[in-house]
Automatic annotation (TrEMBL), chain A:
<feature type="transmembrane region" description="Helical">
    <location>
        <begin position="38"/>
        <end position="60"/>
    </location>
</feature>
<feature type="domain" description="YdbS-like PH">
    <location>
        <begin position="104"/>
        <end position="180"/>
    </location>
</feature>
<feature type="transmembrane region" description="Helical">
    <location>
        <begin position="80"/>
        <end position="101"/>
    </location>
</feature>
<dbReference type="Pfam" id="PF03703">
    <property type="entry name" value="bPH_2"/>
</dbReference>
<keyword id="KW-1133">Transmembrane helix</keyword>
<keyword id="KW-0472">Membrane</keyword>
<feature type="compositionally biased region" description="Basic and acidic residues">
    <location>
        <begin position="1"/>
        <end position="11"/>
    </location>
</feature>
<feature type="region of interest" description="Disordered">
    <location>
        <begin position="1"/>
        <end position="21"/>
    </location>
</feature>
<keyword id="KW-0812">Transmembrane</keyword>
<protein>
    <recommendedName>
        <fullName>YdbS-like PH domain-containing protein</fullName>
    </recommendedName>
</protein>
<dbReference type="InterPro" id="IPR005182">
    <property type="entry name" value="YdbS-like_PH"/>
</dbReference>
Amino acid sequence: MSDHAEEHAERASAATAVPGTGGRVPLRAPANPVSRKAVALWLFEGVFWSAVLIGGSFLLTRWIDGDRWSWLPGWALGNIWWLPALVTLATLPAAIVEPFWRYAVHRWELSGDVVYARSGWISREWAFVPVSRIQTVDKAQGWFERVLGLATVEIRTASHAGSSTIKGLDYGVAATLAEELARRAEELRDDAT
Amino acid sequence: MSPPLRLSPKVLLTEPIKMLPSLFLPLAGVLFVGGFSPGSFFWAALGVAGSVAYAVVRWATFTYQVVGDRLELTRALVSRSVRTIPLERVRGVDVSNPPLHRLLGIAVLKIDTGAGGEDKQEGELDGVTVAEAERLKAVLLRHARAGAARRTANPETVAETAGPYGQEVSAPVRHAPAERVLFVVPRRWLAYGPLSGAYLLTPFALAAGAVGLAFQWGNELRIDGRFVVGAGEWIWDHPVVLLAALVLLVLAMPVAGGVMYAVFNWDFTLRVREGYLVAERGLLTRRSVSLERRRVRGFELVEGIAERWAGVARAWAVVTGLGDSQTRGQLLPVVPKAKALDVVGEAIGPAISRLRPHPPVARRRRLFRAVFPWLLVALCAGAAALAWSPLWWVPAVAALLLAVLGVPLGLDRYRSLGHAYDGTRLSVRSGSLRRSQAVIEERAVVGWKLTQTPFQRQARVLTVTAGVGAGSGGYSAFDVGEAQGVAFAAEVTPAWLAPFLLNEPQE
């Protein structure tokens, strides 16, 4: 058995003897985009959190400026009002760009009894979860998702690294997907893990 | 069917003693606040009596019973709570004897059900007689195995459970369990212990504990506060003493670490008993962990940098649904690597030694990550030294030194990177200060995750993580070439990735 195994390994290493020459990641994009309304969801989340950060830095600045913290060097105290401006500059554009970028990246597909999902914006993630290994399928809705008629499908296996979360699906799509996954998972249940 | 059983009454002794450390501070507090008046003694006595009464109530209200194919743990006080553990879900039974328990001839029995690693789901019987522990263990494991075999439609698995060890599948259950010792770690190999870096901080922990105790008991013994302050000032005036103490502690590190290691890993024995791998170890607390072989999905071989220099390694089994796998899954303590490979090869399966290297750009990334942060720190500290105080040169030079050390470290990290698939098992390796290689069966993979940061995208590499419902949950190959990484996942589980590949990897 081990002979065969080594042979296999050798053959395989010969096939990929020149690694990384294949260009970009040789995976096609998953078939389905998420709902357009997901952009609104991400926009809301992003703007909310950047507002929290900007507000926080504003308050901190006012505090520092008001009490003249003595242990800070003079140049920092003199220019302290740059802090909220910098935070705004750093977070707000990101919060506005992120949703559109995400909408271009986030896609999902169910075919061949495998869930294939792509997500991320600056960093990317491709997840492959075979239906036969699914343990639970959750359909969740936050309050803002409910307002927009969106839902999140969480697909869990025995491993966090083999699990996947698809955000920003239309509620109907999410319900159908969750239903379909649960039904197929029941049929295909494989106890090897 | 057996009647409901209670724990050994000896727990009435162990339980309050177990609670003593947590009672100690409040008790001492009550005594001090009360100024050792009769009233405060009364309250302290009440506290002790309360803990004893609590232990009695807990003992009296708790029963366990094997009913048909399940174990029921019942706690009936005002309400009745029953925890039911189906025997077929039992994945391992772990019997240990802490020193006090050993003195009294009782044991702690832990039942591993592998319920998603949630401790709440596991059963624990703290304080059954040793004989009862052995009996129960035998019962639980027998039922578990019988249930598993019944459920398994696949005859191969049954054969695998019992086949290779000359045991009949239909062996009568009353037989003494056939067992075979795979390996007993010779005592002289305990000397390798300190190389693993385990328990090295023991002297500092002990010193801190001693100081803390001195403060507690110092008060108790009515040592004057001024004396303590005086002693502190004296030490402050004689920094040589402090330095000497520090040097002594540092020198004691390998010794104390070695002693602790020896205490925990004394006579480490690995056995095969029916369908189980049984690892037993320890001098004071003798600990035995049974791992169901049917659930073993691979292993992990770990070598620290000092261990690699000495040619030794440690091994862990990767077992599905094993909680606390870091301590319980240990298959071998520090032993020579060749021996480790031998034993693991016999217990689980051969290692995969031929790993595919990752693209050269990964070397650049490893170097950058090992050197750049320290270089940045050195630059900042250097700038601070020029701007403010020459004292900043100390961290600047230290950071620069670390940056220089980062060069061999980064190169070695790159050398460690590798992945392979041999037709049934995949393997990934990474790390330098702690290099670990995992060998996992293909059937244990429950999914894949490929991730790529912007820097990785620029370098045209990505990280491939195989999700595994065992061990640490995921095993990653870092900085694999983009095509290489996808090809790796597609090679291990072709059916899962085939629909999504852009172009078939060229044969």
